[in-house]
């Protein structure tokens, strides 16, 4: 954490704005809790990435919530390139004052300089590639730039630092850890598979019961979580010889299907 923090801090002096990437399915839990302290009052745009995997209704709630709190936020899908134009436009709005002041001092207009930060696997590289598409070759073509800090041009109006800042999530909080594991932000080996699946099933039972019933052909959801596992195992054949439920295998199937949207677009926390 200290190293990640130092690396981001060093880059802050070079940039105008931070693009903080979070997972739209868990906008709060996928933030690094130290981020505010690290970036201090540097302008920031919060990007709820992987919005294509999240419940659109809840994403709207998050966006309104941020708006009310004075936080600039956008929902995007880096994989498909949705929301890319809005990123540039929003950054321009956020930095209007700064650039006006620079112009008043006679400083020549230049592109907005941004740094992408976020926890592992949140989509930082995908976003850079998406934004950079047209001009990335230009950056890569020049020899001897590997060690130097280099900028990736995004049109005329934006430049990105080529290496994003990686900030680790914090999962001292059990529930944050379970959410990160459910969405695949942290490796499955960190937490017990069955614990993750139990957490996810209970969450679905409460928030998305119809998705759960439909996917696993259940008339009703059994109260007892073990029976729920058994029912899913019976339907999916995740049993050991002798017909007993293989709980690990069943847990793995449940988690995999949640992550690949087989149970629909899900968001695991509300504002
Ligand atoms: N569905 C969907 N998948 C995405 C989106 N953005 C990224 N991904 C996928 O998420 C995975 C991780 O993306 P990366 O861009 O490698 O994430 P990263 O933040 O650079 O990860 P690290 O380099 O490990 O820190 C990849 O499989 C991407 O294809 C998105 O908006 N929607
Ligand atoms: Mg990456």
Keywords:
271 residues, binds guanosine-5'-triphosphate, alpha/beta, seven-stranded mixed β-sheet, 12 helices, binds magnesium ion, single chain, 45% helix
Describe what this molecule looks like in 3D.
The chain is of the alpha/beta class and 271 residues long. 45% of the residues lie in helices and 12% in strands. It has helices at 2-12, 35-39, 56-68, 84-94, 96-104, 124-132, 136-141, 174-183, 193-207, 209-215, 225-236, 247-259; strands at residues 17-23, 44-49, 73-75, 112-118, 151-154, 158-161, 165-166. Strands 1, 2, 3, 4, 5, 6 and 7 form a 7-stranded mixed sheet that branches. Helix 3 (56-68) links the parallel strand 2 and strand 3 (73-75). Helix 8 packs across helix 9, helix 9 crosses helix 10 (209-215) and helix 9 crosses helix 12 (247-259). Magnesium ion (MG) binds next to helix 6.
Rg result: 22 Å
Structural class: alpha/beta
Strand element count: 7
Largest sheet: 7 strands, mixed
Beta-strand residue percentage: 5-15%
Q: What is the share of helical residues?
A: 40-55%
Q: Any ligands, ions or cofactors bound here, and which?
A: guanosine-5'-triphosphate, magnesium ion
Poorly predicted spans: 137-146
Judging from the principal axes of the Cα atoms, what is the shape? elongated
Quick check: average pLDDT? 90
- Count of separate DSSP helical elements: 12
- The end-to-end span amounts to 27 Å
Q: What series of H and E elements makes up the topology?
A: HEHEHEHHEHHEEEHHHHH
């Amino acid at each position: 954490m200290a190293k990640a923090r130092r690396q981001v801090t060093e880059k802050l002096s070079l940039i105008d704005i931070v693009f903080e990437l979070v997972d739209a399915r868990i906008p709060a839990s996928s933030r690094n809790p130290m981020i505010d302290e690290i970036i201090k009052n540097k302008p920031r745009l919060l990007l709820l990435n992987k919005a294509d995997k999240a419940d659109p209704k809840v994403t709207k709630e998050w966006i309104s919530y941020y708006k009310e709190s004075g936080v600039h936020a956008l929902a995007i899908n880096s994989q498909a390139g949705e929301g890319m134009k809005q990123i540039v436009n929003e950054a321009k709005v956020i930095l209007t004052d700064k650039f006006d002041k620079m112009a008043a001092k006679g400083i020549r207009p230049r592109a907005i300089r941004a740094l992408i930060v976020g926890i592992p696997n949140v989509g930082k590289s995908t976003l850079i590639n998406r934004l950079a598409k047209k001009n990335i070759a230009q950056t890569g073509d020049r020899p001897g730039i590997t060690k130097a800090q280099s900028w990736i041009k995004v049109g005329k109006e934006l430049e990105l630092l080529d290496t994003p800042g990686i900030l680790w999530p914090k999962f001292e909080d059990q529930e944050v850890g379970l959410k990160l594991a459910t969405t695949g932000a942290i490796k499955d080996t960190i937490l017990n598979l069955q614990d993750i699946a139990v957490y996810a099933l209970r969450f679905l039972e409460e928030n998305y019961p119809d998705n759960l019933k439909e996917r696993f052909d259940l008339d009703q959801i059994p109260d007892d979580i073990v029976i729920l596992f058994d029912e899913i195992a019976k339907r999916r054949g995740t049993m050991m010889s002798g017909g007993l439920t293989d709980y690990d295998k069943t847990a793995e199937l449940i988690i995999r299907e949640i992550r690949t949207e087989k149970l629909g677009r899900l968001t695991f926390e509300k504002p």
